[in-house]
Amino acid sequence: MNNVHQTETNIALNTTYKAGYRCPSNIALVKYWGKKSEGVQLPANPSISWSLGDLYANTIVEAHPRSENTAFVFTLAGEPKPSFEPKIAAFLKKIAGDCPWLEQYTLHIDSTNNFPHGTGIASSAAGFGALGLCLAHIEQLVHGAPSLDLRIEGMDFWQRSSYLSRIGSGSACRSMFDKPAVWGVSEAVSDSSDLYAVPLSQPVHPSLQGWKDVVLIVDDGEKSVSSTDGHALLEAHPYAAARFGQAQKNLGLLVQDMAEGNVNDFISIVESEALQLHAMMMTSRPYYLLMRPNTLAIIEKIWQFRESSGLPFCFTLDAGANVHLLFDGKIDETLMNFVHNTLLPYCKNGQYLCSETGKRPLSIL
Ligand code: DP6
Questions:
Q1: According to DSSP H, which parts of the chain are helical?
Q2: How many domains are there within the chain?
Q3: What is the pTM of this model?
Q4: Pocket test for ligand 1, best of 227, 284, 316 (most atoms within 8 A of CB)
Q5: How would residue 3 be classed by pLDDT, with cut points 50, 70 and 90?
């Protein structure tokens, strides 16, 4: 495998390059909440997630030799979407030093999600994941690689895609793998890095493979605090150091539980992580209460049904009111009956989304 350092490279101009990827969203089991004060978008603690293969973004990028000093043109499902442009412009500016070839091209970016924006689902993870994959692919073509076999700045294609996606949105870097993805340095995971996510190398016990996620939509409005602003609240948070220590510890324990198949301990850590994330938001200044009454009602119902059935399932939360119900795919029928009969009345207009976990991105060209 050749290793390219960008400063040594002659890039081929006057050629148009194209790449397209479907990239899944992901759900964190141990949460990323807080960034290091130094560096660009580095996590204050390691996190681990499952990819959500049925909730994805499809993105196609064409790189044309630059005209009229235009860095990019963006469309969402073929339609201009000016409200997305500032975030993409900021992203391209941040990666300009990493990708000097970009200044020679105008990018035509078209992206579509197969799930609604702004529903508290990590749409930025799928969107920036797909964009990072397209850029890493075009970068290989620009450098004359016939396949994706160049190491760029010491990174293989998947690491480089994860690295670039991270700069767009931290959680996006975890969307690259079918195995659980770990982002952030942890003693429990060899090769783990703050710069990109890595697939968990330890085997996962069969009892924790093939789980599914039903996202119960309690609130489909815009988030009251963006995750970028939410992360910043940790900078002056009185409990930040304790939280980062907890996340480190939980990640080590969770990885061990996943290898050994300790389902009850896995459940306990995943639920505790979700509640810690919200506890941090409730105790920051300004403070936020992102759960709604129906969030709590759903959690209560999940606990009651787990107690009475003894089945393996649990909840987790993102930085919003919606509840992710995670369950072993083997109990799919029972759990979907529970969702329909008991949980849907608490969802806004009965809305929910379903996904398998553990699918990787696909090239769509
Ligand atoms: C609560 O990745 O959306 O979903 O890096 O600022 O774009 P930025 O934040 P983002 O944060 C996600 C936070 C979370 C937990 C997680 O996915 O680990």
A1: 85-94, 123-142, 157-168, 227-232, 240-260, 263-282, 293-309, 332-338
A2: 2
A3: 0.96
A4: 227
A5: confident
